[in-house]
Design brief:
Helix content is about 20%, strand content about 35%. The protein is of the alpha/beta class. It has a 4-stranded mixed β-sheet with strand order 1-4-3-2, with helices on one face. It has a 4-stranded mixed β-sheet with strand order 5-8-7-6.
Length: about 120
């Protein structure tokens, strides 16, 4: 069954929105909804959407240890652009863009709330 969306908790909706606006713009994505407790973005060609929300229980959002959301990029240049947009928009680096041991090209980063993500592609043969 295909994934419909992934949602990350946030402690600051405005700060998170700046981060995801920048990252999703690199994929050609845009906001699909926004209200006072949550915001969502979609990719232009479909696939899972991304959302951020204040936790329903009213407690502080926290990151899941070992949890990561991977975003497939078109090519290595796009991986580099996504990583740069993430860092320029309040994210932190978890691994510079580069070729990985298992043959794919990736960059790792965290959003302002500490949620881990990566952008990756399979290098052209």
């Amino acid at each position: 069954m295909p994934v419909a969306h992934v949602t990350f908790g946030t402690n600051n909706l405005e700060r998170g929105a700046r981060f995801y606006d920048a990252v999703m713009a690199e994929f050609g994505g845009a906001r699909t909804f926004a209200h006072d407790k949550a915001i969502g973005w979609s990719f232009p060609d479909g696939g899972p959407s991304i959302g951020i929300t204040y936790p329903f229980d009213g407690e502080a959002a926290n990151r899941g240890n070992g949890t990561m959301f991977a975003l497939m990029a078109a090519d290595e240049d796009m991986v580099r652009r996504v990583h740069a947009a993430a860092l320029a928009s309040g994210g932190s680096c978890e691994g510079e863009p580069g070729l990985r041991a298992n043959g794919f090209y990736a960059a790792y980063f965290r959003d302002p709330d500490g949620n881990k993500m990566n952008a990756f592609c399979m290098p052209a043969a």
